[in-house]
Amino acid sequence: MCVLAVTASCGPGPTQPDAYCGIGSASTTGLVATAGTTALAFANLSASPNNDCPDPATPGVVSMTIESPDGADPLLTLCIPHPERLPGGLALGSAAQLVDLDGTAAGCSFAIDASVAPAGTVSATGLCDAGSAHAGFALVAAGTVSLTRTCGATVDRVSATLAGTIAIAGP
Q1: What does the alpha-carbon distance between residue 97 and residue 66 come to, in Å, rounded to a whole number?
Q2: Residue 74 DSSP one-character state
Q3: Bridge partners of 123?
Q4: Using CB atoms within 10 A of its CB, is residue 4 exposed (0-12), middle (13-18) or buried (19+)?
Q5: Nearest Cα to 41, choosing from 66, 73, 65?
Q6: pLDDT tens-digit series, residues 117-132
Q7: Burial 59-76 (b: 16+ CB within 10 A, else e)
Q8: How many DSSP H helices and E strands does the chain contain?
Q9: What is the rounded radius of gyration, in angstroms, for the C-alpha atoms of the chain?
Q10: Cα separations (Å) of 137 from 16, 23, 103, 104, 120?
Q11: Are 35 and 106 spatial neighbours (Cβ–Cβ below 8 Å)?
Q12: Which of 51, 100, 57 lies closest to 80, judged by CA?
């Protein structure tokens, strides 16, 4: 008697059945940076294993870039040196590098203030193949970021809450 067992998996980081991989119920518009009554709503983010921010201590790990489409307003770019650790949660600003966050709203422009480190966490559900699975995944963010706000001749610094769950398209 012969028994054949087949197990489907998504590859590195966690090994799960194919049904586990993907965005789940996340929306393509679920992530918002809010400063007071002004909101910058991000949409249609995608991930790609570009190796833009590799960790020199682990040369075999390919970093992942999560970004808005070209020309988007607002614009968001994150670089994750260790995407295989994203399901467990990463510190925003260090383990999950906030490269760019800018946009316009309410007659003002907003840009990341690099002099103040972001705080909070980002994590993922449905992440397979260290973020390179075509099914994508859901990104969950909860943190704060300092933005430079320019309204005409007035320039000041505002604290924004970055929060929500958003579908991330795979490569």
Answers
A1: 10
A2: S
A3: 140
A4: exposed
A5: 73
A6: 999 999 999 999 998 8
A7: eebbbbbbbbeeeeebbb
A8: 0, 11
A9: 18
A10: 13, 4, 24, 27, 20
A11: no
A12: 51
Give the Cα separation of 141 and 129 in Å (integer).
20
Q: Tell me the C-alpha distance between 58 and 63, whole Å.
A: 10
Torsions phi, psi of 32, nearest 5? -135, 135
β-strand 75-80 against 97-105: which pairing, if any?
antiparallel
pLDDT tens track for 74-103: 999 999 999 999 999 999 999 999 999 999
Instruction: State how far the Cα of 80 lies from the Cα of 95, in Å rounded to an integer.
Output: 7
What amino acid is encoded at 109 in this protein? S
In this structure, what DSSP letter does residue 81 have?
Answer: S
Closest CA to 77 of 132, 22, 122: 122
Pick the closest to residue 88 from 168, 14, 169, 164 (CA basis). Answer: 14
Amino acid letter, residue 29: T
pTM of model > 0.85: yes
Amino acid 16 reads Q
Q: 10 Å Cβ neighbour count for 50? A: 14
